[in-house]
Amino acid sequence: MSELTISRRGLLAGSALLLASTALPTIGLAQTPKKGGRLIVAADSEPRNLNPAIVASNGVFFISSKIVETLAEAAFDGKEGLQPRLALSWERAADGLSVTFKLRDGVKWHDGKPFTSADVAFSALQIWKPLQNLGRTVFKDLEAVDTPDDLTAIFKFAKPTPFQLIRNALPALSSVVPKHLYEVGKIEENPANNAPVGTGPFKFAEYKAGQYYRLTRNDAYWGKDEPYLDEIVYQVLPDRTSAAAALEAEEIQLAAFSAVPLADLDRISKVPGLKVITKGYEGLTYQLVVEINHRRKELADLKVRQAIAHAIDKDFVVKTIFLGYAATATGPVPKNDPQFYTADVPTYPFDIAKANALLDEAGYKRADDGKRFALKLLPAPYFNETKQFGDYLRQALAAIGIDAEIVNNDSAAHIKAVYTDHAFDLAVGPPVFRGDPAISTTILVQSGIPDGVPFSNQGGYKNAELDALIAKASETLDTAARTELYKEFQKKVAADLPLINVAEWSFISVARETVGNIANNPRWAVSNWADTYLAG
Amino acid sequence: MNRLHRFFRTPEAIAGAIILALLIVMALAAPLLFPGDPQAIAGPTLLPPFQDWSLPLGTDRLGRDVLAELFHGARTSLAVGLAAAAAALLIGSVIGTLAGFAGGLIDEVLMRITDAFQTVPSFLLALAFVSIVGPSLSVVVAAIALGAWTGPARVARAEVLSIRERDYVAGARVIGMHPLEIAFREVLPNALPPVLALSSVIVAAAILTEAALSFLGLGDPNRVTWGGMIAEGRAVLRTAPFLSVVPGIALMLTVLGVYLAGEGVVESTAVRRSLS
Q: Residue A16: its pLDDT value, please?
């Protein structure tokens, strides 16, 4: 029988054994990695397209990063914050027009064919550049990829491209897929998008809609002795409240991406056998942002935007909505970014009186009913926190006489309303900072982006000075000079408020104590889990 | 007077009437007792009930007063329940009367449409309707009425079928009244009592459907609803269960009250009929 069934009884029997074994002294539990075992993980969404080379998003990576590998992964202590995966080294030419990757030898695809530089060239030119949501920007000047031999890939750019940007883009944007499977037919309709084939430590085994994804061990993996696990099962638990109960009942062993609600963490951290881990998401910072539609004449006025910024109590947001598991934001780059962040920007302390004064100054006096004007507010539905912040923002705006009407939509309708139809005045969005402002941050304020591009500037904001700065930074090769330009960028955004950055947060994992080697890199949840193991 | 007397003879009816009266008082008093926006932040977050007497039922995750939300939620629940039931009864009795009185092809067409609506689960219909049109109070009312008018329509038609054969209807025809006038002035008023007996069931179902829609995030987000409160409390069910339990109890009592009062009405009219 090939079908996998996770029966409650089987699990109970298994967990009874586990319980018996953990009842023994468990000193040194997490020291030596143990081989074998099935890791059961909570999955809260079911992406249909599992090709990370096309859809570079965390929901896809969570599953497919174990199957399809990138050229390099983020690391806490590696050189330039990277550790090699499919590429062993990367070097740039002095003119900034080419980057040479030396590839790992002896790597095989899951179907047995050898991995070569042709696969890298194909992925880069046919997928990352034309099709990938993020690659379209980063690799826009990529002209050709030369493959002098099977283990060398030379990226040639039409315009000088900053090496820093390419390096920062490697962990998320450089998933390599097999050329021999993708060269026939349309790439978007390739069956491997739903059943990916890669070089990673785990192979895709099966997917049952509404139930689970199952990955099995790749015995021919290049990593010595890796992977340790035999299987990873992603149990689909769409109800966010059920993950905590499933962990306690030992039906699952890991819930990543804050599948356990923040409000439950305090309680769950006291449950014996479970651990709460806040590390392992440093490279995946989400930003809580108020998106502004500058087509509204009131919101086109800087004073009104400043007033809104002053009306938001960021400390309250961090303390009550994120229960402390977040940080207040000062601008478009998160505080935890080691390369670009600057605190030297205009700030907007919580000050209702000042906000009211600014609105009066702007000419929007309170009417007899105490209201100045009405707005439509669209909170993004992806996270509990974005929805709650929507409720909070409505109250915060009411305090300064702005009457906000909340419009709730499902994900698809929200994306259409905000990014295609522009049918919003304010929206609450959770953009991701991906280690370099050029990857997915400057796009939030840059002008000239076609309608319908999600998570981009669709608020009609246009600032020639800022556009010029972004353009200049994208061509500046010198790392120090480029970093300086992005500091300037942060100052300008904080001063002109094309959008309002409120807070920055990351995720929390909850796991059983038997799960080892958790959170050992800054993108752990979306890394390959080759060294993850189950003790006991 | 006599009927009222009979109504208050059954203990269920008394209980139902008391609960309903309390609910109506709650709904009417909400803007007086808790003026301003019930969703305004009123205190510390997740305050348990009975700790601070200015916030007797505690606060939710954003520090909003649960009691104020409960009172204002009663308004929404009652408004939606009554409006949806009224709309369903109106549509149902009009369609039922037309079908029953006209007969023939009109009857066939109208009853097949009724069948079509009855085959779709009414909650699914409401869900689809709200998610397409977008959540707001009037849309929610329309969505609930859309699935609830078929019952009244069938009952009204059955009644009309028997009434239209009565002598006074024939008499009305003879004196040259317009058929529509006969249908709505002579027949419908006499067909109404059994249709109205359905109202308690419809109100109760409408309140539940509204709560379920809000629970799924398809209620009007700018109004407090009990279903929405339960849904919000769900995220902290283990740490602050009162956030879901309090509106849950309110919802249960309301539906129970409506149902008991409705039973009382049916009972008292049934007694009257058997007496006559």
A: 43
Question: Do the domain assignments include residue B50?
Answer: no
pTM over 0.90: no
Whether residue B221 and residue A406 make contact (CB cut-off 8 A), yes or no, is yes
Three-state SS across A233-273?
EEEECCCCCHHHHHHHCCCCCEECCCCCCHHHHHHHCCCCC
Contact B40 A395 (CB under 8 A): yes
Residue B51 domain flag: no
The CATH number of the domain where B88 resides is what? 1.10.3720.10
More confident residue, A288 or A47: A288
Shortest Cα distance from B44 to chain A (angstroms)?
9
pLDDT above 60 for B1: no
Give me the residue from A240, A384, A406 closest to B222, CB to CB.
A406
Cross-chain residue pair A241–B235, CB shorter than 8 Å: yes
The DSSP bridge partners found for residue A59 are none
On chain A, the residues whose CB falls within 8 A of the CB of B137 are none
**Angle B252-B197-B251 (CA atoms, 0-180°, nearest 5)?**
10
Burial class (CB in 10 A: 0-12, 13-18, 19+), B132: exposed
DSSP symbol at A418: I
| Rounded alpha-carbon distances, angstroms, from residue B62 to A122, A351, B49, B261 | 51, 19, 15, 37
Both structure tokens of A502: 């409120």
- Closest by CA position to A366, among listed A356, A375, A353, A376: A356
Phi-psi region of A231 (alpha: psi -120 to 50; beta: other; left: phi over 0): beta
Confidence category of residue A153, pLDDT binned at 50, 70, 90: very high
> What is the domain count for chain B?
1
What pLDDT does residue B2 have?
A: 67
In the three-class reduction of DSSP (H, G, I as helix; E, B as strand; rest coil), residue B93 is classed as helix
Q: What is the mean pLDDT of residues A128-157?
A: 88
Q: Quick check: is B53 in a domain?
A: no
Asked if residue B48 is part of any domain, the answer here is no
Q: Which residue has the higher pLDDT, A328 or A415?
A: A328
Which DSSP letter does residue A208 get? E
Any idea how long chain B is?
A: 276
- Asked if B217 is an interface residue toward chain A (Cβ–Cβ < 8 A), one would say yes
- First-last CA distance in chain B: 16
Residue B105 lies in domain? 2-42+58-275
Name A10's Cβ contacts closer than 8 Å, sequence gap at least 6. Answer: none
Q: What percent of chain A has pLDDT over 70?
A: 94
Distance CA(A264)–CA(A281), nearest Å, equals 19
Q: Is the pLDDT confidence value at A204 over 80?
A: yes
Residue A290, pLDDT above cutoff 90: yes
| Triad A37, A87, A168: Cα angle to 5° | 95
pLDDT tier at A119, thresholds 50, 70, 90? very high
Which has the closest alpha carbon to A445: A381, A482, A505, A496? A496
What type of residue sits at position A168?
N
Q: How close is the nearest chain A Cα to the Cα of B252, in Å?
A: 23
Contacts of B217 in chain A (CB under 8 A): 381, 408
CA distance A394 to chain B (A): 9
Cβ-nearest to A395 among B39, B217, B235: B39
Give the per-residue SS3 of B139-163: HHHHHHHHHHCHHHHHHHHHHHHHH
Q: Measure the CA–CA gap between A452 and A458, rounded to whole angstroms.
A: 8
Q: Helix, strand or coil for residue A144?
A: strand
Closest of A121, A112, A117, A104 to residue A222, by C-alpha: A104
Q: Where are the alpha helices (DSSP H) in B35-166?
A: 66-102, 104-119, 122-133, 137-148, 150-163
Q: Quote the pLDDT of residue A6.
A: 45
SS3 call for A156? strand
